[in-house]
């Protein structure tokens, strides 16, 4: 024998909707509820689920950026690969300001070089700033006496807590050359982040 229960709303004893169907959207739980999946149960997704590892973005430097020697300079990451929630500014501030709080995996790389003579590179230092302050640094220095410098990349990954309203992160780097003009090389310079949890 088969039974069918038809209802648009199922409520708790206080009259709050705990299951609601409206316009082909099913809502489970009321504001403030905790939905628990007990031990031994399996949550299976055979359809399309959203919200996993987002907000997320990845962008790159569109063309070489000339910089002042041995000076911390914001990398003008201006070419988006993807930006799931429109949280990365690739035209003015070159910063990621996520609209969901949580822990974020932040990653990227800056390739530094000398504009004319590629044997004059001495140092590339890259760092992440959170809300305008240093958060983490990556540093490489070459010994030019034995190993003349050409180009050098500083790659990184770090987990950062962001509040989802006002916190933002930016990418800075410092290229030091013995002569010629230092630059950030577009080929190999990129920046990205994605949410990994609360």
* CATH architecture label name: Sandwich
State the CATH class. Answer: Mainly Beta
Largest sheet: 6 strands, antiparallel
**Structural class given helices, strands, pairing?**
mainly beta
Rg on CA atoms, Å: 24 Å
Number of E-state strands: 15
Helix content: under 10%
Shape: elongated
Report the portion of residues in β strands: over 45%
Question: Which spans of ≥5 residues are poorly predicted at pLDDT below 50?
Answer: none
Number of domains: 1
> How many H/I helices?
0
Task: Describe the structure in your own words.
- It is a single chain.
- This protein is mainly β.
- The chain is 0% helix and 51% strand.
- It has one domain (56-197): Jelly Rolls, CATH 2.60.120.
- It contains no helices and 15 strands.
- The relative contact order is 0.23.
């Amino acid at each position: 024998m088969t039974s069918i229960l038809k209802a648009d709303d199922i409520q708790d004893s206080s009259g709050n909707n705990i299951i609601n169907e409206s316009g082909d959207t099913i809502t489970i739980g009321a504001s403030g509820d905790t939905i628990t999946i007990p031990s031994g149960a399996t949550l299976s997704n055979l359809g399309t689920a959203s919200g996993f590892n987002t907000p997320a973005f990845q962008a790159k430097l569109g063309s070489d950026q000339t910089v002042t020697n041995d000076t911390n300079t914001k990398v003008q990451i201006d070419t988006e690969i993807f930006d799931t929630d429109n949280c990365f500014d690739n035209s003015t501030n070159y910063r990621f300001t996520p609209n969901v709080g949580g822990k974020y995996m932040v990653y990227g790389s800056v390739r530094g070089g000398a504009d004319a003579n590629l044997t004059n590179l001495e140092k590339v230092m890259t760092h992440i700033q959170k809300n305008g302050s240093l958060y983490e640094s990556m540093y490489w220095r070459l010994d030019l006496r034995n190993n003349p410098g050409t180009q050098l990349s500083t790659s990184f990954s770090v987990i950062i807590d962001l509040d989802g309203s006002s916190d933002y992160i930016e990418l800075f780097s410092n290229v030091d050359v013995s002569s010629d003009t230092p630059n950030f090389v577009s080929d190999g310079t990129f920046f990205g982040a994605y949410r990994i949890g609360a």
